[in-house]
Amino acid sequence: RRVLFRSNLTDIEDKNAVSEKTIHFIDERLAIVSSELNGVEGNLEDYQGNNQIINVASQSSESFENANDVSKNLTNINVQQKVVQSIQDYFNNSNSQGKLVPSNFGIIDATLASLIARYNELQLKKEGEAPSLAPNSIILKDINNQINNVKGSILENLENITKNLKLQENSLRQKSGQYQEFLSALPHKERVMQEIKRKQSITEGLYL
Q1: Which of 33, 101, 147, 197 has the highest local Cβ count within 10 Å?
Q2: Closest CA to 29 of 115, 123, 93
Q3: Cα gap 20→120, rounded to integer Å
Q4: Which pTM was predicted?
């Protein structure tokens, strides 16, 4: 019973450690994205004020609706790309070496989730055994090799996700080109407003 209790207690401590790292990761990114969002919202407000724009005309034509759908899908892809970039930056940051990795934050990929879980499992194992092992211990070297292998697999998986998102983005941009004739007919100020609002949507999506 004592062994089982100790095992359960260790599992809880491990989960708490992962949660703490995830919260810290979110707090850092939240501060950055919050600043970016304030900047975009400020630009939108300034542009509206300087150009005396109250509401951009939103024609209910099929072309306009299709263009909006494509824009929303592009925004979603852009948000996912930024999330993937954040995870890659975390892995490539020397200050993150030897630390637990936060979750994948909405990137739906079973392989990535499994690899990150394995990486954290190995890091926790290293933290638990390192104090009682010599620096040149074979066991410690084996754990480090496993960690490096999993890290390499994670980065490779992130590259594949990036490529897939890029293909989706290119496809959507190709569709978007079909509606450029309609969009180009809009007054210049309205088109500028649409682009500012799209950037705002991307940043808001990442913030959420």
Answers
A1: 101
A2: 93
A3: 13
A4: 0.60
